[in-house]
Recover the amino acids of this structure.
């Protein structure tokens, strides 16, 4: 943030969740940090040659920001005329959250926080109203913390395999008159956009949300 201020950069995009760790305290869902912020190892190697490495360091890795710490960072940034745009990934890059709360996932199975590099296949079951409630709850706490008018929801690199193999998701897709899993992601994304707009915020995402 200090270096950004020197360079007169005024927007900091803070990527707080991903497959390999959930890094923001959400008070309504404490297991996001008690479980989702921890992994028991990390893949070793250097991209790109090490991307397919099968060796791991065996060193536990963990950490997250409390809401009080985040408030301090937001204040520190604001003093330097920097707005922080938080990113909470959905519906993909969700493995850490699903490890904490398996009902969130399209398979419903217990998984662990991944230790391997790269994009994972576990994604939110957006056909389940309980999952939508979870997402809304998380975004509400994020909006309560961050004054930014823009909230980033990720949306990139979603692997549709689990949706295609889920009878519940495919039945929902058919019921909603959606032609493909890609259309389901667009429908989900539009719903999140409307939710944020109702709270006077604007959604941002990676190009795949189109």
């Amino acid at each position: 943030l200090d270096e950004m201020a020197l360079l007169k950069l005024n927007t900091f995009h803070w990527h707080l969740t991903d497959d390999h760790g959930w890094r923001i305290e959400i008070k309504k869902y404490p297991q996001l940090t008690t479980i989702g912020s921890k992994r028991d190892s990390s893949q070793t190697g250097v991209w790109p040659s090490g991307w397919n490495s099968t060796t791991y360091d065996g060193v536990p890795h963990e950490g997250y920001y409390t809401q009080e710490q985040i408030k301090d960072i937001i204040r520190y940034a604001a003093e330097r005329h920097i707005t922080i745009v938080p990113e909470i990934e959905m519906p993909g890059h969700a493995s850490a959250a699903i490890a904490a709360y398996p009902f969130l996932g399209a398979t419903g199975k217990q998984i662990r926080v991944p230790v391997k590099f790269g994009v994972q296949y576990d994604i939110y079951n957006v056909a389940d109203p309980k999952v939508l409630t979870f997402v809304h709850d998380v975004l509400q706490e994020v909006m309560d913390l961050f004054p930014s008018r823009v909230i980033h929801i990720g949306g990139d690199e979603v692997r549709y395999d689990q949706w295609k193999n889920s009878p519940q998701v495919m039945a929902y897709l058919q019921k909603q008159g959606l032609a493909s899993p890609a259309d389901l992601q667009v429908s989900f994304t539009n719903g999140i956009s409307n939710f944020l707009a109702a709270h006077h915020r604007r959604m941002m995402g990676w190009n795949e949300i189109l």
About this structure: Residues 181-198 form the longest helix (18 residues).
